[in-house]
């Protein structure tokens, strides 16, 4: 009688968690636009859609997961405050949601995080702690704060509420693209891909999910190759939002990415910079390197052709002006 229950793992997420997230975050998160890119569609001979997750107030999708997590805390936890560590966008998302809800937020970041992101964090009212040379080191500081002050650490990706929050993107795409066949998703810790993968595959397992990362320091990619989470040294990349470890004791996203991702592509720095400049030129759209990895996959014809629609998750737009200036100069 309880057959299903005994087979299903206790902590496994289902599509119901994503519906629950959709209802929970509706009061503070807007549905984002989905537009067809006629230029990219023409290039690959099939409809290409862009899911514009860059248009959230903080310029990236991470508000979805952060909102779902923070709204699910109890009153006691909200009163003690929250802490997080991040290469930037997750930290901004947590600060943004905390401010909206009147909760105190501390953000621990590494010294690699670009200036534009540090300034935005301060503007959002977060308390900043700069610590160490990598996301992992900033994370250690965060857990010290949890012990010392009883703050709740809001994980950037390896948390069921975060994953379910990001999964709401999948529900929105499903409602708007009936003949969806391919979805291209920037991949770092894998919260974004796990959530969208669960949402899409629960409805139609034949939808192909492709993860995209930069060529250097692609931790999830290298971890999947050896079959367990590993650490890598972080190298500078235009896709700085894709840097960071996946956690050696990863609980959810490693397995979920393994389960839901059909293909993974690594993108060279030149391809990322060209795609960012191309989108400025042809679409008058600014996107950060992480988001441009998906465009690069399509522009470089790296996704095996099949009939039907393809959607790219445009995950964020937070990029320093100095980087854009350089890109425009080199674009031809
Ligand atoms: C965080 C982030 C990603 C990757 O999300 P994960 O859940 O860590 O895989 C992609 N693009 C942008 C802009 C991000 O901020």
Overview of this protein structure:
It is a single chain. This protein has 332 residues and is of the alpha/beta class. It has 2 domains: 9-61 and 159-331, Rossmann fold; 63-153, Rossmann fold (3-Layer(aba) Sandwich). 47% of the residues lie in helices and 14% in strands. The chain contains 15 helices and 10 strands. Strands 1-2-10-7-8-9 form a 6-stranded mixed β-sheet, with helices on both faces. It has a 4-stranded parallel β-sheet with strand order 5-4-3-6, sandwiched between helices. The termini are far apart. Residues 60, 62, 89, 157, 186-193, 241-242, 288, 290-291, 315-316 line the site of pyridoxal-5'-phosphate (PLP). This is threonine ammonia-lyase. It catalyses: L-threonine = 2-oxobutanoate + NH4(+).
Brief descriptors of the model:
single chain, 332 residues, alpha/beta, Rossmann fold, 2 domains, six-stranded mixed sheet, four-stranded parallel sheet, 15 helices, 47% helix, 14% strand, globular, disordered N terminus, binds pyridoxal-5'-phosphate, TrpB-like_PALP_sf, lyase
């Amino acid at each position: 009688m309880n057959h299903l229950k005994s087979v299903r793992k206790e902590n496994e997420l289902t599509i119901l968690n994503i519906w629950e997230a959709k209802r929970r975050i509706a009061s503070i998160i807007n549905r984002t636009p989905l537009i067809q890119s006629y230029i990219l569609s023409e290039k690959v001979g099939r409809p290409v859609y862009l899911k514009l997750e860059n248009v959230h107030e903080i310029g990236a999708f991470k508000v979805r997961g952060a909102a779902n997590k923070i709204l699910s805390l109890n009153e006691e936890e909200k009163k003690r405050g929250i802490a997080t560590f991040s290469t930037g966008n997750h930290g901004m998302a947590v600060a943004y949601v905390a401010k909206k809800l009147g909760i105190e937020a501390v953000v621990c970041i590494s010294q690699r995080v670009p200036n534009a992101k540090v300034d935005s964090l301060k503007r959002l009212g977060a308390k900043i702690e700069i610590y160490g040379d990598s996301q992992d080191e900033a994370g250690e500081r965060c857990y010290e704060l949890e012990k010392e002050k009883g703050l709740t650490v809001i994980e950037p990706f390896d948390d069921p509420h975060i994953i379910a929050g990001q999964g709401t993107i999948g529900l929105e795409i499903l409602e708007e693209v009936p003949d969806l066949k391919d979805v291209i998703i920037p991949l770092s810790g894998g919260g974004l891909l796990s959530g969208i993968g669960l949402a899409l595959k629960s409805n139609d397992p034949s939808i192909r999910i492709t993860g995209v990362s930069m060529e250097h320091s692609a931790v999830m990619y290298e971890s999947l190759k050896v079959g367990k989470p590993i650490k890598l040294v972080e190298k500078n990349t235009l896709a700085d939002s894709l840097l960071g470890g996946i956690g050696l004791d990863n609980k959810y996203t490693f397995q979920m990415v393994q389960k839901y991702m059909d293909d993974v592509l690594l993108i060279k720095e030149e391809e990322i910079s060209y795609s960012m400049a191309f989108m400025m030129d042809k679409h008058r759209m600014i996107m950060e390197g992480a988001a441009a990895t998906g465009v690069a996959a399509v522009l470089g014809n790296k996704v095996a052709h099949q009939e039907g629609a393809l959607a790219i998750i445009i995950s964020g737009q937070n990029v320093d002006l100095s980087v854009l200036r350089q890109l425009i100069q080199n674009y031809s």
